[in-house]
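Most newcomers find our protein records easier to grasp once they have seen one. Sequence and backbone structure share a record, each on its own labelled line. Nothing more is needed to start thinking about how sequence determines fold. As an example, a complete record with its sequence and its structure tokens follows.
=====
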Amino acid sequence: MSELTKQSCEACSADAPTVTADQKQALGKDVPDWQEIELDGEEQLQRVFKLKNFAQAQAFTNKVGDLAEEEGHHPAILLEYGKVTVRWWTHKIGGLHKNDYIMAARTDAAYKDMQ
């Protein structure tokens, strides 16, 4: 399990810096199944999770929602039959922050717990 799962998100202001290329590479090693994408000019982390059916996908979506509420850091979530797409990024800075990698790692752990 990634060390990131044990960390909490830090408060982030609108002038906080986005992660550097070196930080992305280092943090990305802990969440290798996530893709860095750009959507509407903002870098984001995205992963598609495969589940057995709609009920399991919905339960996973709720777990991710609970994690988000605990940290006050909220993703975009697309719930479909047997599939959940999660995107993490820091809205205030319009890109990636260490918090997004922490939450990606916690999302992975929640998924693993459901398997």
Q: What stands out?
A: The mean pLDDT is 95.
